[in-house]
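User: Stage V sporulation protein AE. Structure?
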Amino acid sequence: MIASFFWAFVVGGLICVIGQIMLDFFKLTPAHTLTILVVSGAVLDGLGLYEPLIDFAGAGATVPITSFGNALVHGALAEAEKNGLVGIVTGIFEVTSAGISSAIIFGFLAALIFKPKG
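Assistant: Predicted structure:
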């Protein structure tokens, strides 16, 4: 059990280190860095490499933003097998809808509670 915590920390930390290196050394904007990490997760899932990473690292691979790209492709491919081309679009929304909805709701609630500075 301790080993699973260790590997989750290491893998999640490495993903974050990669993002920080892109920001600091390559002088990429946060938007570019975010996009690269999401696309990387999508490509790794398309190649069948992200699921074994999740099995190995658990939350270390499911919490970072790369997991969002994984979820998009994973949902699209699963639904495409069942429903054809229409499944590609519905699969993307089906798998990611809970996370996106939560982000919108909690963002709205935070805006009600705290005074934004602008």
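DSSP finds six helices and no strands in the chain. Residues 2-113 form one domain.
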